[in-house]
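Newbie here. two chains, one complex. Structure please?
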Amino acid sequence: GNSVTQMEGPVTLSEEAFLTINCTYTATGYPSLFWYVQYPGEGLQLLLKATKADDKGSNKGFEATYRKETTSFHLEKGSVQVSDSAVYFCALSVGVAAGNKLTFGGGTRVLVKP
Amino acid sequence: EAGVAQSPRYKIIEKRQSVAFWCNPISGHATLYWYQQILGQGPKLLIQFQNNGVVDDSQLPKDRFSAERLKGVDSTLKIQPAKLEDSAVYLCASSLTDTLNYNEQFFGPGTRLTVL
């Protein structure tokens, strides 16, 4: 079956620190990979995505590279802000044929202190 | 453009009672999803509709959960009777239906259910 494993939180950082959240996956077929973010009191939002090996997704200063050889999609940001405090979810989809269904990891809470 | 709407935002019930959640997707989105998010876990798909037909309900506990999307627009998820382990946030999402490409799912704010 399909599964996503991401590092447990919470991750506490100071402003301007470097952030990495590890994500690895197991999938039948060739998945697309995603990072979703959930800000306090808000719904899940797509942060970035990558649909094939070696693709790099990027948005709002965040980046993640699809590594097929290590089945990983680690999220990075070079300099975090207090406003980046949120819960981050790694997810995969094995495609339209599977109904666009998302499989999520357990989430990583990030707290950025001023 | 209005996002995915859900109501109520919070609900507290006692075990063995029934509860219903409502979702109105983004206009024009033919595909609608219900997810269950237990505290500290990622969302888990319960059921997926395309228009008013069920695409996937393999993870829906059908002995107590039911969902419908009668006119292919808004949807209702019901739990009857509720158990303590049903305490969770219930998320609704919607997407366009494109048979060739991945379609981004847009999520509502969720309904937080507490079963006492």
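Moderator note: Chain A touches chain B through 23 residues (CB under 8 Å). Chain A has no helices and twelve strands. Thread marked as resolved.
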